[in-house]
Amino acid sequence: xxxxxxxxxxxxAVGSTTAYTLLxxxxxxxxxxxxxxxDKAAGDALDMNHGMPYLGGAKVWAGxxxxxxxxxxxxxxxxxxxxxxESRIDLLKRNIAxxxxxxxxxxxxxxxxxxxxxxxxxxxxxxxxxxxxxxxANRVIGSGTLLDSARFRYLIGQKLHIxxxxxxxxxxxxxxxxxxxxxxxxxxxxxxLQLSAEDKNEIFVNTxxxxxxxxxxxxxxxxxxxxxxxxxxxxxxxxxxxVLNVSTLLQNYRGVSDTYLGIPCIIDRNGIRSTLELDLTDxxxxxxTQSADKLKNILETLDN
Length: 304
Ligand SMILES: NC(=O)C1=CN([C@@H]2O[C@H](COP(=O)(O)OP(=O)(O)OC[C@H]3O[C@@H](n4cnc5c(N)ncnc54)[C@H](O)[C@@H]3O)[C@@H](O)[C@H]2O)C=CC1
Ligand SMILES: CC(=O)C(=O)O
Prior knowledge:
By secondary structure, the protein is α/β, with parallel strands linked by helices. It has 2 domains: about 140 residues, NAD(P)-binding Rossmann-like Domain (Rossmann fold), CATH 3.40.50.720; about 160 residues, Lactate dehydrogenase/glycoside hydrolase, family 4, C-terminal (L-2-Hydroxyisocaproate Dehydrogenase, Chain A, domain 2), CATH 3.90.110.10. The strands form 4 sheets. The protein has a 6-stranded parallel beta sheet, sandwiched between helices. Helix 3 packs parallel to helix 4. The model has no long low-confidence stretch (mean pLDDT about 95). Pyruvic acid binds next to loops. The site of 1,4-dihydronicotinamide adenine dinucleotide has 33 residues, from helix 1 and helix 3. It catalyses: (S)-lactate + NAD(+) = pyruvate + NADH + H(+). This is L-lactate dehydrogenase. It is an enzyme of class 1 (oxidoreductase). Catalyzes the conversion of lactate to pyruvate. One of its GO terms (biological process) is lactate metabolic process.
C-alpha cells in the first residue's frame, strides 16, 4: 500500500508545531520538512527523530521540493508573520512573492497533492495558489475560519459552562478583521444559546481579535492553528466527509463569486467535496458581502 506523506513548507512556529502535532497523533507514514532556512528544518527533523522510541513509527526528514512528488498533502506555512500591531493584510506583499516561488517549485514535482495553505493573509494566499497553480479548486484549501470558529466555540463554551465540542457555531468570511459570527444558527443540541447581546459582542470581539492578543503577549500563535491543520489533514486522509469552515473558491455562494473565503465545506480524500450554503439573516448577509468585497478589492490590486 502507498505510504501516506505530508510535506510541510515553512517550519517556523506554525510549521514545526503542526509537524509535532501530526507526529504525536500518528497521522501519516512520512513527514517531510522544508524551509528556506535548511538548518531549521534539519534541526527540527533531528529533534523530532530523537523522540522516535516513544512515537508511532512515522519517518521524518528535512527534505527538498523533490519530496513533494509523492505527497498526499502539502501544507504551506512559510513566510512572514504579523508583528504586534500588524494586520494579516499587512503581510500581503511579502508573502505573495514567497508564495509565487514556492508554488512554482511544488508544481515541478507534483500536480496530484492537496495544497493546504495557512500563511496569511490566508484567503488571498489560497486564491493566489489556486490561480497560479491551475489546480482544481477542490485541491487548494485554505485554513480559513476553522481556527476562528474553534476560538468562537471555546469562548461560547466558557461563558455557558459547556464543553466546546458540544457548541455548534460558525465564523465565516475572511480569516481576519472582516470575519463575521453566524449567531442566528449557533446552538447547543439544537437549542438557542442563552446569551445576552453584551455577552455575544464580547465573545465575538475576543474571537476576532484573539491573534492580536496572543501576538502582543508572546509574539506568535501556533498551537491552535496546528490542531486546526491536523483536523483538516485527518478529514482528508481518513476520507471523513467532515464539515469544516475552511477557505475555498466561492462561485455563486450567497451572491459571491471568484474569491476565497471561509465557509462550511465537506472535506474528504479529494479535498473539498462541496460547500454548504448557510441560511443567513439580512444583517449576516450584509457582513458576508462586505467581507467578500474587501478581499475582492485586494485581489484586484494584485498582478497576475
Ligand atoms: N491561518 C492561520 O490561522 C494562521 C496563520 N499564520 C500564518 O502562518 C505563517 C507562518 O507563521 P509563523 O510560523 O509564526 O512564522 P515564522 O516566522 O516562525 O516561520 C516562517 C517560516 O517560513 C520560512 N520561509 C520563509 N520564506 C520561505 C520560502 N521561500 N520557502 C520556505 N520557507 C520559507 C522561514 O524560514 C520560517 O522558518 C504567517 O504568515 C502567519 O501569519 C499563523 C497563525 C495562524
Ligand atoms: C495569526 C493568525 O492568523 C491567527 O492566530 O489567527
